[in-house]
Design goal:
With 336 residues, the protein is mainly α. Helices cover 57% and strands 4% of the residues. It folds into 2 domains: 1-62, no CATH class; 64-336, P1 Nuclease, CATH 1.10.575.10. The termini are far apart.
Length: 336
């Protein structure tokens, strides 16, 4: 597959190919959107099958942590919610009439993905408005949070965070939704949306490959394989495959992770804010997700050795635990 990628890239240009991968990462269908010249269209058609294979793998990374990971973060947070805060959270979730998810915390953690995709095949208003909010992709070689966050634009007075600029990152949206959830002046419907987005984005900001990119759409353009695991992209492995190694179900994994969390870790992890948490995730991506990759093989794929998988499993476990503890701290502070 990599040989085909390299060939198509040489003809279409690396930038166009990566743009297509980046679009697919957000669930778009880039093949129909390329502005190809008449001379290039036959070439594109000839390699459509190859590109479909590439792009079909990429949407796996569109949902940070996958539904399992987001559920684990929410279940860990649930354990640390103050009783009065838990009651307020439950009441808010029960008022959600969108029908996109069930009203329990673990299910609602996937709401932002469901909302984003709910009109993807139609008007695409929700999709275009929110799909960038799930990432803070700092460039691996020259990380700049401000650049990854499109200049960190401030909301205009009176603008709800859920209607805020489409060009915004996870860090900026977490800060905005935290402020809304904390304010008693926020209208009920917007407060509900603030909660629903926070439940999800607090997971996103702890997925290393949602905070870094090696000009590969956060690992979506790197094909990997490992013994005992299905082939996929590097991003998908960190989203899903490594998460599934933690337990037989989200409930099982959350129970195991919660049992290992110490008071000292809680004190340490609840320091900082979304910006520092994103930078921490970036460092993990740089030093481990990317930094410990073996050399690329002749066919263009990466064969992950057991020590890479063991290390990744450890990091994923820690990041899910951190995400859960920090989500609880954010909700406790906003709704106490």
């Amino acid at each position: 597959m990599q040989n085909a990628i390299d060939f198509v890239s040489s003809k279409l240009g690396t930038e166009k190919l990566l743009n297509a991968v980046e679009l697919s990462r957000y669930g778009a269908r880039p093949l129909c959107c390329w502005e190809t010249s008449l001379a290039l269209r036959p070439l594109v058609a000839a390699f459509t099958a190859c590109l479909i294979a590439i792009l079909c793998a990429c949407p796996q990374g569109a949902r940070a942590w996958g539904s399992e990971g987001h559920a684990i973060v929410a279940l860990i947070a649930e354990h640390y919610l103050q009783p009065q805060v838990r009651a307020k959270v439950d009441k808010l979730l029960a008022s959600d009439k969108s029908g996109l998810t069930r009203h329990d915390l673990a299910s609602a953690a996937a709401w932002a993905d469901k909302y984003r995709d709910s009109d993807r095949d139609g008007a695409r208003v929700r999709y275009e408005q929110t799909h960038r909010w799930h990432f803070t992709d700092m460039d691996l070689a020259a990380p700049k949070l401000d650049k990854a966050c499109y200049g960190m634009a401030v909301l205009s007075p009176g603008t709800p965070a859920s209607a805020g600029p489409a060009r915004a990152c996870a860090v900026a949206k977490i800060d905005q939704f935290r402020a809304e959830l904390r304010s008693a002046k926020t209208p009920h419907d917007e407060r509900l949306r603030a909660l629903l987005f926070l439940l999800h984005l607090m997971g996103d900001v702890h997925q290393p490959l949602h905070n870094a990119s090696d000009k590969d759409a956060g690992g979506n353009a790197k094909e990997v394989r490992a013994d005992g695991l299905p082939a996929g992209t590097l991003h998908h492995y960190w989203d899903t495959e490594f998460v599934r190694l933690l337990g037989s179900s989200p409930v099982d994994a959350a129970h195991k992770l919660t049992a290992r969390i110490t008071p000292r870790q809680i004190e340490e992890w609840t320091r900082g804010d979304a910006s520092s948490w994103s930078k921490q995730s970036f460092r993990l991506a740089k030093n481990h997700a990317y930094g410990k990759l073996p050399p690329r093989q002749a066919d263009g794929t990466y064969s992950l050795p057991p020590n890479y998988i063991k290390n990744a499993r450890r990091i994923v476990a820690t990041q899910l635990a951190r995400g859960g503890v920090r989500l609880a701290a954010v909700l406790n502070a906003a709704l106490q």
